[in-house]
Amino acid sequence: LHISVSFSLGFYTTLLLTQTPEHILTQTNNKTEILCEVKKEHKGVYWYRWSQERQHFEFLVFSNTLGRATYGTNVSQDRFSVHEVRSHSSCSLHISHLHPLDSGTYYCSISQSSQLLLGSGTQLRVVDALPLLPKATQTPVSKKPVPWVTRNKAASRKG
């Protein structure tokens, strides 16, 4: 999410919400989890997704401190779920049966004096096949011992 976009929409990124991990690369049909640590009092956590491809900021789900979830339009409750961790100080977003269209930057968020404070963001990329990492080319290590040049005292002695 570009800063210009975030400020024009009235969203503010803050260190009060720390997300882990920063990046996720996974395959179609896998599941994933994004953790959000909240360092401020709140009445519930919102989850949003920014799609660079579609230039679209989408509300996914809101979970209040009682654990009740409210879902955004067309958001599948079968695939998206929110879990509270450690007495409301953290929560996690679980997404199952991942699809490439789920790719985007995910933000947890809390409401603070009519503003939405955004977390640090987690970039999720879902692909049909993971890219193969090139194997490191190793130079063959010579097994031969390094010959040490030793001087024979007798041979070096002049007659």
Description:
By secondary structure, the chain is mainly β. It has 2 helices and 12 strands. It is globular, with a radius of gyration of 27 Å. Residues 1-9 have low confidence and may be disordered. It is found in: Membrane.
The percent range for strand residues is 35-45%
Write down the secondary-structure element order: HEEEEEEEEEEEEH
Instruction: Name the overall outline.
Output: globular
Helical content class: under 10%
Unreliable sequence segments: 1-9
CATH architectural label of the domain at 17-126? Sandwich
Reported for the largest beta sheet, the result is: 8 strands, mixed
CATH class of the domain at 17-126: Mainly Beta
Q: What Rg is obtained from the alpha carbons, in whole angstroms?
A: 27 Å
Number of strands: 12
CATH superfamily of the domain at 17-126: Immunoglobulins
The mean pLDDT is: 81
Structural class: mainly beta
Remind me, CATH topology of the domain at 17-126?
A: Immunoglobulin-like
Number of continuous helical runs: 2
Q: What is the end-to-end distance?
A: 86 Å
Please give a handful of descriptors for the protein shown.
four-stranded antiparallel beta sheet, 2 helices, Ig_V-set, 159 residues, single chain, 44% strand
Topology:
Elements: H1 3-8, E1 11-13, E2 17-20, E3 23-27, E4 32-38, E5 44-51, E6 56-64, E7 69-71, E8 80-85, E9 90-95, E10 104-112, E11 115-118, E12 122-127, H2 153-156
Domain Ig-like: 21-119
Pfam families: V-set
Signal peptide: 1-18
